[in-house]
Each structure stands twice: as C-alpha cells, then as structure tokens.
Design goal:
The protein is mainly alpha-helical and about 140 residues long. The protein has one domain. It contains 5 helices and no strands. Helix 2 runs antiparallel to helix 3 and helix 4 runs antiparallel to helix 5. About 15% of the residues are buried. The C terminus is likely disordered.
C-alpha cells in the first residue's frame, strides 16, 4: 500500500495537481466573459464563438500549464498536439458519459456534473501521465520501475 501511495504521489504531486486545478478554474472563469464579448458585443453566432473561445482558452491553458505547473522552458509542438488530443478525448468522454447517464434515467444536469468529474479525471491523468510525462517533478522522488 505504501508503494502504491508513493507511486501515486510521484505521478500526481499534490502541489502540481493543485496548480493544474487552479489554472483550469481560472480559465473557466475567463472563458465566460470572453464568450459574452464574442456573442453579445462582436455578434458572432454561438457555435462560432464557443469554438473560438474553446480554441483560444485551450491554447492559453496549455501555455500556463506548460510553464507554471510543469516548468518547461519553451512549449513544443509535440506537447501542444498531445494536449489538444487529450482535450478532444476529454470532451468525448464528457459527451458520452453525460448522454449515457441521461439514457439510464439520471437527470441531465446531474449527468452533466458526473460527466464533468469523469472528464476532469481523464484530463488530469492524460496531462500528468502522457502530455508532460513526469516533467517538472522533484528530483528526489522515486524513479519509475
């Protein structure tokens, strides 16, 4: 059990997970006013505005995570592509889970909340274990076997 906890803490250090979560929350708070500007002030159709907002927000979140959570000197195209792929799969996870739960009789708002939890869990896992694969972790942590 101790080894499992040690490995989990190595892969998901609480400080980094906390920073990652704060950045996600900040950008969620930034996206709503940005969406308002695009729809109500710039008069873009909602589907276009949400696409622009999601694309711009995802790019900024990547840059913030790359620099402030994982301490990378410069972003790379490879990490950016991996991040966008992880985001796309995360959206698919949310969509599939929200609709599956609704079909099983769960109220659509509760289904959306549960699906968000699944999507965030997937995003956390893919970001820490794939996109940034241990980058920026403390040097004194146990090595992977």
């Amino acid at each position: 059990m101790r080894a499992l906890v040690s490995r989990l803490l190595w892969h998901f250090p609480p400080g980094k997970v906390g920073k990652w979560a704060v950045i996600g929350g900040l950008f969620m708070g930034i996206n709503l006013p940005f969406l308002y500007v695009l729809v109500d002030l710039c008069r873009l159709p909602v589907p276009v505005a949400t696409l622009v907002g999601a694309g711009f927000g995802t790019l900024l979140r990547f840059l913030a995570n790359d620099r402030f959570v994982f301490h990378q000197g410069r972003p790379t195209w490879a990490r950016l592509r991996a991040y966008y792929a992880a985001i796309a799969v995360g959206v698919a996870v949310w969509y599939a889970m929200a609709n599956a739960l609704t079909c099983l009789g769960v109220h659509y708002l509760l289904a959306a909340i549960a699906a968000t939890g699944c999507s965030v869990g997937f995003s956390l896992t893919s970001n820490f274990l794939w996109v940034w694969r241990g980058r920026g972790l403390p040097r004194d942590t146990p090595q992977r076997q």
